Amino acid sequence: MDDQPPSPRKKILIIRFSAVGDIVLTSPVIRAIKEQIPNVEVHYLVKKEYASIIEVNPYVDKIHTFFGDLKATINQLRDEKFDFIVDLQKNLRSRKIIRSLHISYGTFPKHNIQKWIYVNLKINFLPSIHIVDRYFAATEKLNVFNDGKGLDFFIPEEREYDEDDLPAVFENGFVAISLGSIHATKRPPTHKIVEIAKILHKPVMLLGGKDVIQEGEDIAIKLGEKAYNGCGKFSLFHSASIIQKADCLLTGDTGLMHIAAAFDVPIAVLWGNTLPEFGMYPYRPNKTENYRNFETVALPCRPCSKLGYSKCPLRHFKCMNQISVVDVAEWINRF
Hints:
Distance between the termini: 57 Å
CATH class of the largest domain: Alpha Beta
Strand order of the largest sheet: 8-7-6-9-10-11
Largest sheet: 6 strands, parallel
CATH topology of the largest domain: Rossmann fold
């Protein structure tokens, strides 16, 4: 019997502009498209500042970086002659790209109306489904399904953090703590981090950007040799590599939380103004025993925003302040 001719090459564009956590959450879709469609060429459109996350993904064939000039981006994409667009951004920009290219596409339910009702009226009409599973609505026309393998995050060998560079006190294990977030109401307060860390059996590595260097320094001073302030010192890949080596990650609702989920590292999540019900909790299909959500339930002011604020609108920050430090520390000490 003659060999079957190869199927024609199909070019698919995935759109997700930002940010770290949201891009990591698209990784199951990237992998599924590459593995389930024969002879497929996967392209990804992303903002320049997040392109490095996609550049090292072996399932992506070509990256298109968005610099802010939508017209130029559309012209660049038009030359590619895509067969299909998977819109995982679903905003005005991505819709304009789709309309301009005049090709078939798929997208997903954002549930923004339900989120607005939950934030403003405190009535929950949100379906109990993670955003990763919602993303796969965008691939239904392609007959691509969720393989259930969870998230991916790839670290180039040259960008891994050398374990020998860790402080000597970390030799027998450590807990990573993420301090950074764009929105302050997603970050555990400094005093809460200190109180929890004092009960932990292991030293802590503080992670975050330059914006939380001083916060990390304040915590490190109060904890002494038990803490190392890595805020502002490590790249995203170095931070990810450190989390991969950690015994547990303590975090708010952050991008590093999703990176830890990709590595199957135990995660203690402290929830502030956002809720797990928004569908952005650690994604681990069929395996939930090694992460735990800590939150102050039944607060009449919560959720106060689907994104976050620079400070608590009511100035009491009860959603974070009332979380039990003992409960959090005891759970982390299991690992």
